[in-house]
């Protein structure tokens, strides 16, 4: 395998491993896909945002953040607060499901409000920056020469594949996901992941 192929594969594998975990952004994409509401726009926005953050990290911003202890601490505690807040809301939904509202919550808003929520869950979640800018960026920035671009391309492809599968594939699983019990499991899983990651952020310095 050539150096560029190896960098591409590493970018793809790292991103695939990070992005598959159920989180706030993924849950939104899944809900939109289930409701068949603004799916293409949401998938495109999430993918483009990932590409932007990955590129920023690989081509310099990740290294800058790592060199600033104060910035790292801001991401650490800000990310933990965001994750705890979202995890609590998910836990409440799992404990007290809203019945049929679970099926249509993603379709309730206009395109503008849906994209606004997508932007908020993407750019106001410090953990997104930790994954894409700091972690992926730090590894990608270590690639020599054109390896950086290959790493970023592999990471971007994994992001595109995941969001497309999540958004457009939700319809195929609609019969299962339309059951309130299924969403209770999803919301409980989201809460668990958010709490665990928040605990990791608080207990381990970046």
Textual characterization of the structure:
By secondary structure, the chain is an all-alpha fold. It has one domain. The protein has ten helices and no strands. Helix 3 (39-66) packs antiparallel against helix 8, helix 4 (69-95) packs across helix 7 and helix 4 runs antiparallel to helix 10 (180-203).
User: So what's the oligomer here?
Assistant: single chain
Low-pLDDT runs of 5+ residues are 100-107
- H/E series, N to C? HHHHHHHHHH
Round the Cα radius of gyration to an integer and report it.
17 Å
Percent helix: over 70%
Work out the number of β strands.
Answer: 0
The tally of structural domains comes to: 1
The end-to-end span amounts to 33 Å
Write the layout of secondary structure elements.
Layout: H1 3-19, H2 24-35, H3 39-66, H4 69-95, H5 101-104, H6 111-123, H7 126-141, H8 147-169, H9 174-177, H10 180-203
Helix pairs in contact: 1-7, 1-8, 2-3, 2-8, 3-6, 3-7, 3-8, 4-7, 4-10
Question: What descriptors fit this protein?
Answer:
10 helices; globular; 82% helix; mainly alpha; 206 residues
In short:
The chain is mainly alpha-helical and 206 residues long. It contains ten helices and no strands. The longest helix has 28 residues, at 39-66.
């Amino acid at each position: 395998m050539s150096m560029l192929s190896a960098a591409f594969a590493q970018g793809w594998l790292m991103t695939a491993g990070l992005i598959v975990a159920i989180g706030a952004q993924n849950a939104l994409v899944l809900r939109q896909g289930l409701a068949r509401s603004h799916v293409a726009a949401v998938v495109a926005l999430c993918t483009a945002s990932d590409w932007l953050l990955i590129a920023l990290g690989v081509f310099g911003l990740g290294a800058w953040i790592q060199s600033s202890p104060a910035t790292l601490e801001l991401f650490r505690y800000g990310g933990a607060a965001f994750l705890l807040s979202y995890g609590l809301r998910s836990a409440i939904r799992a404990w007290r499901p809203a019945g049929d509202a679970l099926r249509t919550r993603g379709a309730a808003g206009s395109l503008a409000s849906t994209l606004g929520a997508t932007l908020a869950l993407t750019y106001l979640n410090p953990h997104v920056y930790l994954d894409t800018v700091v972690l992926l960026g730090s590894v990608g920035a270590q690639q020599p020469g054109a390896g950086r671009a290959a790493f970023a391309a592999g990471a971007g492809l994994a992001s595109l594949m995941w969001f497309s599968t999540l958004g457009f594939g939700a319809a195929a699983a609609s019969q299962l996901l339309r059951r309130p019990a299924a969403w209770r499991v999803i919301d409980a899983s989201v809460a668990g992941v958010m709490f665990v990651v928040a605990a990791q952020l608080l207990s381990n310095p970046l």
